Automatic annotation (TrEMBL):
One of its GO terms (cellular component) is cytosol. Gene3D superfamilies: Cobalamin-binding domain, tm_1862 like domain. Residues 4-136 form the B12-binding domain. It comes from Alloacidobacterium dinghuense. This is B12-binding domain-containing radical SAM protein. One of its GO terms (molecular function) is 4 iron, 4 sulfur cluster binding. PANTHER family: ANAEROBIC MAGNESIUM-PROTOPORPHYRIN IX MONOMETHYL ESTER CYCLASE-RELATED (PTHR43409), BLL1977 PROTEIN (PTHR43409:SF7).
Length: 487
């Protein structure tokens, strides 16, 4: 038996379908006996895993995790399983171990790391555990040899979603994952592609998956959505693709097929790509149910965007602010502020730029984060000239210092002056109060009125310092912050 474990990453009321685990389950279906344990639904996942270990012959426990709270949950569970059942092999996969494979293998309770796309690597690892092949022949695998030394095999070429079977939704209580959101009463999630062809220097996606994006065929995407609608009653969907609109011809075909489903949905796009789309295509996107698009605007400084290798311009962001307003789609613009080359200048210019976006399209949702690099391929330091030395173990990543770094609460960036960081934080609370997010469906109307009233004078006069009254109000109201729930 194979156990697929999805450690707890969020509150049960916010949980969504564990797509990474479902993708692995799809290739095991009909071939291996397996069980899925989701820590977002199971309050005692370790007990559940131990119960299967004691009642069945378990070959492997596969753990999928993202950085942050889920990594901590993965660490604690894996450590306990190793302590109580030391003979069980444990493999980690997902975003965190793909970026930090050596740090992950430094943990005594991790035997293998699957880097990047894991479906075929998992199947070959199972064969190797049964003596049918050697570990050094498995692409995308890192492991400890008989002497405890780390071995890292070559990368595995990525395949598109169409190369693998559908997720076995019947193996999970799907209804429990279709939660209310701004987009509908029963919101599903879906990944219609994998990877990203761009090379943003602060991002870890290409470090984990390389610089390719493989897209699912529009027909398959719509067939899966139809299944979620007819079988489970989904009325909305969030697409987790890094670039949902990579090609206009693909987008038009998909929109035409999606239109009869009457779904409201959210996705991510790029301003450089979508600024070139025709008005006809934009109207079709809106007509197919698109309610909100997330854009990584990143900076209000063209020089900073060039430093990031982002491949976009500030003018393209402004174009999409105008076009989304024209077509009635809410844009969600994310900024990573405080570029290491000149954080003070980047901060000043970006805050001015955000105000410009708000003048063009007041409905724009603004997400402000500190510039937080991740290691890139061939480098342990991202693009910050060795100013950050990342932790060597999951346990160190779990400390408050590095959890704050991961969650962008306080990166303690050596290039960032305290007053600059404070300006970013204060601006974030002022702009977030002046235009409270529409995505918190639990917040009463009066709470938004209070925040708007308290912050109006500060925003108008550009007085961001010491927003004590807003900090107090947010503690009392506890309005949802999109960037926290998107991690």
């Amino acid at each position: 038996m194979i156990i697929l474990f999805h450690p707890r990453a969020t509150k049960p009321r916010n949980c969504r379908l564990p797509l990474a685990i479902l993708a692995l389950a799809a290739v095991l279906e009909g071939r291996e006996e397996y069980e899925i344990i989701d820590g977002n639904l199971d309050d005692k996942p370790v007990d559940s895993i131990l119960s299967f270990i004691d009642s069945r012959k378990v070959d492997l426990v596969g753990v999928s995790c993202m950085p942050g709270p889920q990594m901590v949950a993965a660490m604690e569970a894996s450590r306990e399983i190793r302590r109580l059942r030391p003979h069980i092999k444990i493999v980690w996969g997902g975003y965190f171990p793909s970026i930090y494979p050596d740090s992950t293998l430094n943990a005594k309770y991790v035997d293998f790391v699957v880097r990047g796309q894991g479906e075929e690597t998992l199947l070959e690892l199972i064969d190797a555990l049964r003596g049918k092949r050697s570990f050094d022949s498995i692409l995308g695998l890192s492991y400890k040899d008989t002497f405890g030394l780390h071995r890292t095999n070559a990368e595995r070429p990525m395949k598109g979603p169409d190369s693998f079977p559908w997720s076995p939704f019947h193996r999970l209580p799907v209804e429990q994952y279709l939660r209310p959101s701004f987009f509908g009463k029963r919101t599903a999630v879906h990944h219609a592609s994998i990877g990203c062809p761009f090379n943003c220097s602060f991002c870890g996606v290409h470090a984990a998956y390389g610089r390719e994006e493989r897209m699912e065929s529009p027909e398959r995407t719509v067939d899966i959505l139809k299944h979620l609608v007819s079988k489970y009653g989904a009325d909305s969907v969030q697409f987790y693709d890094m670039n949902f609109f990579l090609r206009e011809d693909h987008a038009r075909k998909l929109m035409d097929l999606m239109m009869p489903l009457n779904l409201r949905w959210w996705c991510e796009g790029r301003v450089d790509i979508m600024s070139r789309y025709s008005d006809e295509t934009m109207a079709t996107i809106k007509g197919a149910g698109c309610a909100m698009i997330f854009f990584g605007a990143e900076s209000g400084s063209d020089w900073a965007l060039k430093e990031m290798q982002k491949g976009i311009t500030t003018e393209q962001t402004l174009i999409m602010a105008r076009r989304t307003r024209q077509f009635g789609i809410i844009p969600e613009f994310s900024f990573v502020v405080g570029n290491p080359k000149d954080p003070e200048r980047d901060t000043r210019e970006t805050l001015r730029f955000i105000r410009k976006i708000k003048r063009i399209n007041p409905d724009s949702e603004i997400i402000v984060q500190h510039y937080t690099p991740t290691p890139q391929r061939g480098s342990m330091y991202g693009d910050v000239d060795g100013q950050i030395s990342f932790p060597d173990t999951p346990a160190e990543w779990a400390t408050k210092k590095w959890m704050d770094f991961t969650l962008r609460i306080d990166t303690s960036a050596p290039w960032m002056k305290r007053k600059t960081k404070k300006l970013i934080d204060n601006f974030e609370i002022v702009v977030g109060s002046r235009w409270p997010t529409v995505q918190d469906i639990r917040a009463p109307r009066w709470s938004r009125t209070v925040l708007k009233t308290l912050s109006a004078w500060r925003y108008a006069l550009r007085i961001y310092s010491f927003p004590i009254e807003l900090q107090w109000a947010h503690q009392f109201i506890q309005l949802r912050k999109p960037k926290r729930e998107s991690l």
